[in-house]
């Protein structure tokens, strides 16, 4: 177990306890009302889980919780709550009549207990056998469901207690269980179904010999009809919504008599099935599957043993293909699984690993699978079945699962992180996975440092049922699980074969579908020609079997039938609709026109929708807006401080103190004012107070706007708020599916630029903006670090590929209240977006040039033919280069004919030049540098050090700190001095936001010190931080633009580093790019006012569904158009065995489509010009920046005149043609 700081532990415990106190108090108040059989509010159930709460708070305590924590009262109930339903058919369930109606079971002893307050209860004492306890005989009715509850306690320690019903035919029905403890009352909830009428006996049992205390027992019967009625009522409340549709004309008047045809396009409740690899090659399976299901889980194909059966030989080709197939049909995918805690599922090579080797292997596995599929799955089963099994806990300690969950959330924060277990619903007799124990494990994971509210946890209940499912117990267990307030998914439902398999399946599906805590269902029915795991839905010709018919019947039943409604006199038609996406087509008997409109109905959607009957004839009158908002974050304050500083410095009298105070009070937090005023206290106390006050203001202008300015008031929204009517709101952070706060209407094929000023009510944390587009996708529009007392701007956006209603909301990794103001959402059609790019390119990459041509006599040469061709300079566009270029003339020819900039892919890295300690070899890198010089190719130095621990040689990892410093100094000196004057940049410490090898060894200032040391050896190159996912993946919290800037600021503020030349390196390894987010992130990073380079651009062809070329061009154009971007390097180095992610050519150096796209852009961005001079010998043109060869032809010239002019730095040139 790791050692922890007690302060942090106490704070964590207090945080947990406070939330529980509030929940318990609320539940206690709610419990005054009598609960119904389908009372999903679970009023009194919540406080029945004090055992869970207590253990969650005392995570590191193996014995009972202490009576009190500092400042907190104990959570356990000293007295039980009232029995449900007044006890139902149980006689004297509250023991007010002593032990009347009760007897000892199994030759045990029975006594009456009384609390200090006079409450009476039964005590099973002197127990020597598990079944010796309290019992009561009851009469059961045939074909009846019974809900069971009881309050339990044990005399000593903690013990599992189970409720059992013994029937007349000798069957023992396990009806529920709970972990009871001494000193607090815990509720057991469960039930059973009676299949025959007759006498039965209810009793309790435990393997522990402690006394069992029992109170307030209830057993309530419900007929099948009553139970089904509760289903229907819950479905009506949870899965449906009554909506009013109003038809209006262009003037906003209602259209009475309008006919509204309502068609349910897609069900809102996720219902799916597991999928096997056979779907890739079987069209019949494909048609059957895609016509039914909206969500899937790959049965085995994503598991570790499927992707790396042999160590170091990963193969994702099958899950990649399955994911492409699912996405192409709009089917969401759950990631199953990252790790499986069952020892029997581990490969032999995994079991044979040492502790450190296993740590490395698991780190590679989680990085490999999650970086590949991050943003493409809706949930991850992170550690499968970690209640039943403990392979990783046995090797790493009890925190293993929690640490895996933390890492998983860091790598894919947008996905749900699920605990996936069997028997929690299926088998009340399995003590290992009782609902209370499941929740305790969930709390342990959430309470682990770095998890908390950040991880979007979910409950995964497999649902592998026997031939006789206990339906009342399913409901009771779900009630208990619902107290976690996280989404519950049934992840692997099947029913054991038998004559009643189909009817039992239907009962289970109806039960879980109607429970409000359940957010989705997956059936474990992946088809195989040799047979399914337990249950199939079809035969091998894809004809439904009885279980398949049940599924089809429910899919049909849980959809709204297509129908036509007639609008009333006010244009309204009211309908009760299942949640989902709808197409509403409006016609009118008096008109020939038809209007179709899409709408989405869900828990958080509006109850009223307006259908614009003349929508086909309306045209947008939106004012033209520009998506490039390259203004300062707070121009008002910036200008105010500039002006104030000048006034103070120019004024002889010190009369501006009040003005300065006003500005500071208006815009800066008290903490920041104290910080800066303290820093200048000595100067402010001098006689030259006026001068130093002015300097303070100018200091604020120059320094604070580098990233540390704190605004006390938000600025006005960009674009005047765009389509958002109200730019301010205040709402508590919630889970994504429950946290919608703004409903917006999205347009198809539009980019949306989003911005908002944000603040937290306390502390600091990450805040994420999420846009839910009409296709149901949760798009992270931006993430930013926010703190209390300061308004901070988030900029980003997302793209909508469908029209209809959507949501915008915020979520955070902390519990503080989120405050937002000045929000803006501005839509841009794809054409508008491209137009703005063109406008920006014209402004940033081109200039109007004027060339005057004179003859030898100095007179204007009119009507001369002038041809301009760019030969050098201009915008830097390059590519990575591999050592294969030294031996492949075709590669050399292909590369050097295109690129003027390059990065050596690996050849300059430490592991390439000194793989074995003290055996340096720079021969390959030297030859590549020589080749680049031969062709005037400018090089970037990549890299001095790499902060990823996995990229260190073993000898480096094993060094002591003094020896490491010595080795690093040698590496620094040799590589930097060797290539001094030969590289224009250095990636100094690669990826030091994601990784921290050198910080972990040398301290938090390690990177800053390395920057300083590199500059001492060669002060000419620009020194870069180089990171991935800053503009590619808004769901990756490590390299957020604001965190990147904070790291850069920390490096610059390190003693001796203020005068260094810095650059921002953005690797740009894209899957499907979020272009608006890319632009918003570049806007944010531009505030650092240092050069930005896209250093390793590629687009993954496997994950982009055939759109690699399209996405590559989009990314390149977006980067080229942004004024802060000063260069682009592609990460498409050629290898005979294949490129890193993206190739531009085949092995014969014939362009692939990606190569054609780059050639097209190269030609476009260095286009020349031809024309004739006017009567004054002048030719004017708009040209890309660069150095041009100018060829002049004229009848007076004996030969063509060719000269080179620099149009990169100046806009005019005079050429004397002789």
Structural account:
InterPro entries: CenC_carb-bd (IPR003305), Galactose-bd-like_sf (IPR008979), GH (IPR017853), GH10 (IPR044846), GH10_dom (IPR001000). It comes from Leersia perrieri. The protein is an alpha/beta fold. Helices cover 29% and strands 29% of the residues. Strands 13-14-15-16-17-18-20-21 form an 8-stranded parallel beta barrel, surrounded by 4 helices. An 8-stranded parallel β-barrel has the order 37-38-39-40-41-42-44-45, surrounded by 4 helices. The protein is globular. Mean pLDDT is 84; it is low at 1-74, 615-642, 648-708 and 727-740.
Envelope shape: globular
- Return Rg in Å: 35 Å
Number of strands: 50
> What fold name stands as the CATH topology of the domain at 872-1166?
TIM Barrel
What is the CATH homology-level superfamily of the domain at 872-1166? Glycosidases
Distance between the termini: 85 Å
Sheet bearing the most strands, described?
8 strands, parallel, barrel
- What's the helical proportion of residues? 25-40%
Question: Strand percentage, roughly?
Answer: 25-35%
Mean pLDDT rating = 84
Number of helices: 31
Spatial order of the strands forming the largest sheet: 13-14-15-16-17-18-20-21
- Which class of secondary structure composition applies to the elements? alpha/beta
């Amino acid at each position: 177990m790791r050692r922890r700081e007690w302060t942090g532990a106490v704070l964590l415990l207090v945080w947990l306890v406070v939330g529980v106190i509030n929940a318990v108090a609320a539940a206690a108040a709610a419990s005054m009302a009598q609960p119904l059989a389908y009372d999903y509010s679970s009023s009194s159930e919540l406080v029945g889980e004090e055992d869970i709460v207590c253990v969650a708070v005392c995570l590191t305590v193996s014995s009972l919780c202490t009576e009190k924590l500092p400042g907190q009262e104990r959570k356990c109930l000293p007295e039980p709550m009232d029995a449900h339903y007044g006890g139902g058919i149980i006689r004297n369930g509250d023991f007010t009549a002593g032990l009347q109606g009760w007897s000892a079971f199994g030759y045990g002893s029975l006594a009456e207990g009384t609390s200090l307050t006079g409450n009476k209860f039964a005590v099973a004492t002197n127990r020597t056998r598990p079944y010796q306890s309290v019992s009561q005989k009851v009469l059961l009715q045939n074909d009846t469901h019974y809900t069971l509850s009881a309050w339990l306690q044990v005399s000593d320690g903690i013990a599992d207690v189970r409720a059992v019903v013994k029937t007349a035919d000798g069957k023992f029905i396990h009806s529920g269980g709970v972990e009871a403890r001494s000193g607090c009352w815990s509720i057991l909830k469960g039930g059973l179904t009676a299949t025959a009428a007759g006498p039965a006996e209810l009793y309790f049992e435990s393997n522990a010999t402690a006394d069992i205390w029992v109170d307030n027992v209830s057993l309530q019967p419900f007929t099948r009809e009553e139970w089904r009625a509760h289903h229907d009522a819950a479905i009506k409340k949870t899965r449906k919504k009554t909506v009013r549709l109003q038809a209006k004309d262009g003037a906003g008047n209602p259209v009475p008599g309008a006919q509204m045809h309502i068609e349910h396009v897609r069900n809102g409740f996720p219902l799916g099935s597991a999928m096997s690899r056979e779907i890739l090659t079987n069209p019949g399976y494909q048609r059957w599957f895609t016509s039914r299901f909206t969500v899937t889980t790959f049965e085995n194909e994503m598991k570790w043993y499927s992707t790396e059966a042999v160590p170091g030989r990963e193969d994702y080709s099958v899950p990649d293909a399955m994911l492409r197939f699912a996405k192409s049909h709009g089917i969401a995918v759950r990631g199953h699984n990252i790790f499986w805690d069952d020892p029997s599922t581990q490969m032999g090579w995994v079991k044979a690993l040492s502790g450190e080797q296993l740590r490395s292997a698991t780190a590679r596995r989680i990085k490999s699978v999650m970086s590949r599929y991050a943003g493409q799955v809706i949930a991850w089963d992170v550690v499968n079945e970690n209640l039943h099994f403990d392979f990783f806990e046995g090797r790493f300690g009890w925190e293993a699962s929690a640490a895996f969950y933390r890492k998983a959330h860091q790598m894919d924060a947008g996905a749900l992180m699920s605990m996936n277990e069997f028997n929690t619903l299926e088998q009340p007799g399995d003590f290992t996975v009782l609902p209370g124990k499941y929740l305790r494990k969930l709390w342990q994971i959430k309470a682990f440092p770095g998890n908390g509210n950040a991880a979007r946890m979910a409950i995964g209940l497999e649902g592998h049922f026997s031939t006789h499912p206990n339906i009342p117990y399913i409901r009771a267990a779900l009630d208990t699980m619902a107290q976690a307030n996280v989404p519950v998914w049934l992840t692997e439902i099947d029913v054991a074969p038998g004559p009643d398999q189909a009817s039992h399946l239907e009962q289970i599906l109806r039960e879980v579908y109607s429970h409000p805590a359940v957010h989705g269902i997956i059936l474990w029915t992946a088809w195989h020609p040799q047979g399914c795991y337990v249950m199939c839905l079809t035969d091998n010709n894809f004809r439904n079997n009885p279980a398949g018919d049940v599924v089809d019947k429910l899919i049909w039943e849980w959809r709204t039938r297509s129908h036509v409604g007639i609008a009333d006199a006010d244009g309204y038609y009211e309908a009760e609709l299942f949640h989902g996406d709808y197409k509403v087509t409006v016609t009118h008997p008096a008109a020939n026109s038809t209007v179709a409109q899409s709408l989405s109905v869900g828990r958080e959607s509006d109850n009223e929708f307006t259908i614009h009957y003349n929508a086909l004839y309306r045209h947008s009158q939106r004012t033209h807006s520009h998506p490039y908002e390259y203004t300062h974050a707070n121009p008002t304050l910036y200008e105010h401080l500039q002006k104030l500083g000048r006034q103070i410095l120019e004024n002889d009298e010190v009369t501006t103190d009040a003005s300065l105070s006003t500005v500071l009070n208006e815009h800066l937090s008290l903490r920041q004012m104290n910080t800066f005023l303290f820093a200048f206290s000595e100067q402010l106390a001098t006689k030259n107070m006026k001068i130093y006050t002015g300097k303070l203001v100018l200091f604020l202008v120059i320094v604070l706007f580098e990233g540390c300015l704190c605004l006390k008031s938000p600025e006005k929204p960009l674009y005047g708020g765009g389509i958002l009517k109200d730019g301010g709101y205040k709402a508590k952070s919630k889970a994504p599916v429950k946290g919608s706060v703004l409903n917006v209407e999205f347009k198809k094929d539009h980019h949306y630029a989003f911005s908002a000023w944000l603040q937290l009510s306390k502390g600091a944390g990450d805040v994420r903006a999420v846009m839910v587009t009409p296709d149901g996708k949760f798009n992270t529009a931006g993430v930013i670090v926010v703190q209390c007392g300061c308004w901070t701007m988030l900029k980003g956006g997302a793209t909508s590929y469908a029209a209809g209603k959507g949501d915008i909301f915020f979520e955070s990794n902390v519990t503080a209240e989120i405050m937002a103001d000045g929000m803006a959402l501005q839509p841009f059609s794809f054409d508008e977006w491209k137009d703005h790019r063109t406008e920006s390119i014209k402004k940033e990459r081109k200039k109007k040039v004027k060339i005057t041509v004179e003859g030898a006599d100095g007179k204007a040469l009119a009507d001369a033919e002038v041809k301009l061709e760019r030969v050098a300079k201009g915008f830097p566009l390059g590519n990575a280069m591999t050592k294969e270029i030294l031996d492949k003339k075709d590669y050399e020819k292909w590369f050097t004919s295109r690129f003027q900039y390059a990065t050596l892919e690996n050849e300059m890295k430490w592991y390439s030049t000194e793989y074995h300690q003290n055996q340096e070899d720079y021969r390959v890198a030297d030859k590549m540098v020589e080749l680049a010089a031969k062709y005037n190719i400018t090089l970037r130095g990549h890299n001095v050090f790499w902060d990823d621990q996995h990229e260190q040689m073993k000898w480096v990892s094993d060094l002591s700190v003094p020896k490491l410093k010595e080795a690093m100094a040698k590496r620094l000196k040799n590589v930097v001095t060797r290539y001094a004057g030969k590289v224009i940049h250095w990636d100094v410490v690669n990826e030091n936001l994601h990784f921290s090898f050198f910080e972990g060894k040398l301290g938090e200032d390690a990177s800053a010190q390395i920057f300083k040391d590199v500059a001492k050896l060669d002060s000419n190159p620009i020194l870069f931080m180089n990171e991935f996912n800053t503009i590619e993946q808004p769901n990756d919290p490590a390299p957020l633009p604001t965190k990147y800037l904070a790291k850069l600021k920390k490096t610059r503020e390190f003693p001796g580093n203020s005068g260094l030349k810095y650059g921002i390196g953005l690797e740009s390894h894209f899957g499907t790019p979020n272009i608006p987010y890319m632009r918003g992130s570049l806007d944010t990073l531009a505030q650092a006012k240092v050069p930005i380079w896209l250093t390793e651009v590629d687009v993954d062809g496997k994950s982009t569904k055939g759109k690699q070329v399209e996405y590559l061009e989009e990314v390149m154009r977006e980067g080229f158009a942004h004024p802060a971007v000063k260069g682009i390097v592609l990460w498409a180095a050629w290898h005979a065995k294949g490129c890193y992610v993206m190739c531009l050519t085949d092995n014969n150096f014939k362009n692939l489509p990606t190569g054609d796209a780059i050639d097209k852009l190269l030609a476009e961005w260095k286009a020349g010009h031809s024309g004739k001079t006017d009567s004054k010998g002048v030719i004017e043109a708009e040209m890309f920046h660069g150095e041009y060869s100018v060829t002049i032809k004229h009848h007076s010239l004996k030969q063509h005149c060719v000269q080179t002019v620099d149009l990169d730095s100046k806009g005019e040139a005079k050429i004397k043609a002789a």
